[in-house]
Queue: 4 jobs
Job 1
Amino acid sequence: MRKPIIAGNWKLNNTEKEAVDLVTALRNNLNNVTEVDIVVCPVFTVLPVVHDVLLESNIGLGAQNVFWEDFGAFTGEISAPLLKDIGVQYVIIGHSERRQYFGETDEMVNKRTKAALAHGLIPIVCVGEVLAQREENKTFDVIQIQCEGAFAGLTVAEMEKIVIAYEPVWAIGTGKTATPGQAQEVHKFIRGLLAKLYDENISQTIRIQYGGSVKPENSAELMSQPDIDGALVGGASLKAEPFIGIIQNSCSLAQ
């Protein structure tokens, strides 16, 4: 059985004090959770202090991006060795906001993923369609192109270390959520695609999260779907109570 993974993407939010207060509350309320992997992904500026608060806890630390070169003249970038050096374990790659606002391509996602894997970071690789693509019935075509691009050249052993996040772009930060059936349909498609690209074992063991306006009120129904293994949570991860609620829902389903 796949172990669910709930990751909080804080995006461009939280000062150092806000970050410390939030992760302290999470650590104190979730210290006995073993059924679910929990990850928080703060802004770069608070990663070290969040790491210290979470030290020896059951909550993993993630970053929101990574560059594909280790060092050099790349102003404004952050590399896998530098993230590893401050205790980061996970990294979000290819989020729709990176694609939309910063022109990230599938090739860039692929290079970032390879860099993360090379340094022992766990990539959370995001894929998803915009509203126009869904309305034109192109969802599966878009997902296939993004997956094939993101995972080009990766071995079975490397794929075993990856988490995929399906995030319909039209449901991110909009208050709209894919119905459980819509989300399940795409998750199932991704598994079928991975079986073709790799093998049935990868298809059935890789964890695929859902991301897109996840909150306590809808998380249980979403995560009860057979191919959904948790959530990549945005706004609801910025306060302790809703994020804890989502995790508790996942724990109930995992038992």
Job 2
Amino acid sequence: MDRGLWITWYDLPSAGRADYLAWLHESYIPEIAQRPGFLWGAHYAAVADKIPTSRTTSTMDPDVPTGGQYILMFGAEDAQVFGDPVPSEINADLPVESRKMLALRIAERVHLMAEYGRVDGPEAQNYKSGLLPANCVQLGTYNTPWQNEEELMAYYAQGRLKNMRVLPGCVRTRRLVSVAGWAKHGVAYEFTSLAARNQHFVGHQEHDPKMAAWTKAMGPRLTHAPGSSNLVQRIWPPMT
């Protein structure tokens, strides 16, 4: 299983973007994904017109980078794979030309996360790309005071994840905790398409009064990373 995720949020300038994307997709991702313990690499672009599922409060900490035009993810057997060498060491050891490409990233934020819970949705049985994240991903990363964490775990285990098991269009849902990075908590919802997400996920809790009330109570106690929840579509490998 792919229980470890290396996730990078960032922006890009217009100048040099096409060259960067060609390099990332044709060279960087294939090379990094072949490292010991790595299982896949995937690159996503933000959805321009996001239909929100709920109101969120974002951190005002100026030290937290705000990038979000793109999300690059690598999956590994577990998060410990990212410890020797750590991602910054991997990138520092690249050739000069590759480091110049990496330097184009703006407002880059990196998380190393461990998956501690997963449920498959009804589309998992028809999904042909294995562990690779699906075409459309909604990725939330946030903090909450420790006093809320037991209730937060119950919220997902007793409600949200059960709903995702039967939600049309859902491939899988991953619950995450941070090994390194600003946000301690994360959740990744994977959908067959943006249209499926918009049709079935947006507003789905309105039919479950308990979950709706729980979400209303829990939401204000979460402080999200900039742009969270991020809604993105896969651009590499191409969507299927």
Job 3
Amino acid sequence: MEILKLGYDELLERLYSKLPLRRTEVAVEIPRLETEVAGIHTRVKNFKLVCEIINRDPRLVLRYLLKSMGAKGSLDRDGNAVVHQNVSKASLNKLFEKFIELYVKCPTCHSYQSELRREGKIWVLKCLACGAETTVRPAW
């Protein structure tokens, strides 16, 4: 019952000390996927760079894109995605934007500074800016 003896200012200070630190980094600029078509294969030239910017495993992002398209693909030795199908740049970027909305962007503060982790069978999106945690359903 020591909390009842504390004044307003002490309680407020205690509350702020328990909150996660707020990051003050600049907004993240996520580039669009750059593709080139060679025969029936579509290669994403900046895939590794984009995955580093959004802090996601390239295999996870590729798995989401391939499942959404119903296509097969792989990562080449440079870490770039190769889709074994002719895919338009617009449709690939639209799917990638959907991935960003679902698995990168914080639904609370709309920050792109987040991490995706697995806790048992549940996937959790943790915002590094505001500290919010949201469960997301796996789509891969």
Job 4
Amino acid sequence: MKNLLLIIIALVFSTLAVGQELQPIKLLPPQTGNGKSLMKALEERCTTREFSDRAMSLQDISNVLWAANGINRVKEMKHTAPTAVNWQEIDIYTVLGKGIYIYNPHDSTLYPVLKGDFREQAGTQDYVKSAPLNLIYVADYAKMKNAEEAKKESYAAADAAFIAENVYLFCAAFDMGSVVRASVDREKLAATMKLSAEQKIVFGQTLGYLKK
């Protein structure tokens, strides 16, 4: 009887542990008909370093990731941001208060990488650790076939910048704030995210609702 009780207790705790694990987040369809015009967004685009600590809605997360590098031509599986030679080497890691996820634009899903609040590692400034969403742009050099080794860094930087500017314009169009940051402890964060030697952190971008 004692052994049976121990087994039951172990099963209960095992079930609870599984329930506490991060699950994939299926994103919502983007609201492409909303927001300000492109010209108005360009007029209002700016850098913001003060954010509300209010959690970002799933719809806004879905919208911004689609704008960043989502699929805008489904038949050809083409993206909202260009890349050299169509390498598509930039992966977007999303750092939320509950964990780190990687964005898969092909099925519009955030897949869990690591559970826990790692926002403080997403950048060195104080505002990063309380902002609702940090994006980390990671270049996978293994996808850059036939690229000269000396040119991979510049290609990756340009391709990540295209994505970051999409995010800037989205934030301007939806009255949100954003800032691109080179200030990331790349070695520490790469170890936390368990990146391979071919995966290089390019830079980060913090975004969220404007502080009232």
